[in-house]
Amino acid sequence: MKRIVPIAGPDDRFFWEGVAAGELRLQRCAGCSKLRMPPSPMCPVCHSLQWRTERASGRGIVYSWVIPRHPPPDPGQEPPIVVLVELEEGVRLVSNLCEVRPEAIRNGMPVEVCFAELEGVRIHQFRPAR
Prior knowledge:
mainly beta, 1 helix, five-stranded antiparallel β-sheet
């Protein structure tokens, strides 16, 4: 299974710069203070174009998860575990889950962010909280 390296655009560059620095960054609307993920140029609540970034704790729970079966992984590799993590801050983020066997995953399981290299690019993942 070919993993796709993320490409930063103008609306999410702050997020990927944070990941490169070893932290998760979120957008907060400067108009109504609503926290949002995924990043967007305009607040979906008040339509403000003004926003600021803040560092997330990196802790959350597994809200939902799936193991994709198509396309099949390369021989000798396991398919990734894709999770929807609800961060402590209240927003949800799609990522991969590592350092856990599939039979041990549960919705509500506490997780924490960790970082890995993918083709020379740092990416975020989650693992069971220690």
